[in-house]
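fwd from M.: "can u put these together and see what the complex looks like"

so here's what she sent:
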Amino acid sequence: MSAIIATPISAAPRRPEARSTQPVLPRVAWWVISVCLAVLFLYPLWVMVSQISVEDFLSFADGAGGLSVASSLGNSIFVSVLATAVTVLVSTLAGYAFSRLPFPGSKAVFFVTLITFMVPFQAIITPLYLVLRDIGLSNNLVGLSLVIATFNLPLGIFLMRNSFAAIPATLEEAALIDGSSTLGALWRIMLPVALPGVVSTALLAFFAAWNEFFATLILITDQAQYTLPVSLGILSAGTNNAVDWGLMQAGVAITVIPCIVIYLVLQKYYVAGLLSGSVK
Amino acid sequence: MTSTLLPPAPAAAAALSSPRRRRTGLGRRRQLTGALLALPAIALLGIFFLWPLTRTVFMSFFDWPMLGAAEFAGLDNYAKAFTDAEFLRAVGFTLVYTALTTPLLLVVGFGLALLVSRRTRAARFFQTIYFLPVVIGLASGSFLWLFMWQSDVGPTTQLLGSLGLVDPAKNIFADYWGALLIVVGMVTWKVAGLQMLLLLSGLQSIPVEVNEAARMDGATGWQVFKHVTLPLLRPTLALVLVFSVAGSLLAFDQFYILTTGGPANSTITAVYQIYRTSFIQFDLGYGAALSLLLMLVLGLVSAVQMLLLRNSDHS
């Protein structure tokens, strides 16, 4: 952006990037420091990868008490997919309503949504447990998914509202003049344009759900229903307090590798979502 | 705005641009659609946020066991919190942890941001690497570090032991400072990349001309940094600070997994103590009161952030 603004000011050709970067560190020092830090940051991941053995992966399916890496992985996938789907669907609809279809009280509702941002769910986890018990969803993966989705909603609604607000009003008007219904315009015209926002919302929701620890630990009491992050410690606990570290690291790898792959592939959307969600 | 852009607008477009005045029927339908679309969000937030939040306030005035009848207790739970040695110790430890991690994360995050702020391919590559641990869950990261630093079998302990830096047979987690420093190290590894990213976007939003103008006026690199970069970066700095303060005040996963509160309950955080109160001692009313106190503190942190941001608008 700044480069575009800079061009008309200076008549002589110049390279602002090269000039602004040259001061503090000489080239060689920069490379040495960057590489050393990269080694430090990658070291724990190397430890994880170097510990994986075939036997550990073969022992994934059988576990004591109905708990195994395979079943925990299934639970994790179920919770993450459901929580992500609910977050994306609900925040798309609400984001569209808040940006395009204001109704009496919609400002107040949006304000309450933003307040949820500031209240840590750790603080209301005890009554949440009781609420889930009251509506028959205690110790239930669907209940857990809905709770995780709810706590991702503020960010999701915020991102989707901004995505829709950035689209020129004339686009929707054109669709409506052509005879589209409001929902038809949302689905066929607006959503494709707002797709980057949808992807960002989905990624943030997925990472949050996949890595959730505290809520699962408290809201799920049946070990067979545990998701990966919570089951890792129990899975590897053998008899006589002996810990099967190999099995634990294999479980850690199963939890970590999908996150890294998804991040490397969709980095652009993830970073964009993070930045617009926090910096505004 | 649309009407000024399209002066010879057909009747239909004019009706759309001011639906409320021209056709109340259409306007009301759009309002109704809007309310319907927002309904799922309102329902979820109502059931899983507002309802439990209200119940937290209500429960905090009761002696409320997990099973059995609740009994009204007035402000007893709150009074108890201020004399409860276990809770006060947890609060004290949380503050120590926050005071350790916040400046460390800020310095490391800032250092990384300055390092990768060059617009080159290599800088972007290192930026991706430093950010990698952010996408790993706090729990999996903790389990990974738990293994790394185990006595005898841990790869890091073995590596440092072979260099003669640590005694590989000694259990580092049995020592208060050893356990705390491992948690701080893990959190720095996991969170510094996020701080880097936020600070980097703040740094890159500063126009190049501003720095160059200062340079032309004869400012040195350090003077530019101190008098131009830092003041312009204040909103980002406030955000990054609040992120790490709030995150540290709410710490739980890393201590639950890495130290299990030990040695001798010396690394129990505020949220950990709330967890123990509600789900091990089953004292739900007292747990609710502690939760509300925590919420109050975090509200204060947010308020301070607002204040910092507002001041930066005027300066």
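replying to her w this: The two ends of chain B are 33 Å apart (CA to CA).
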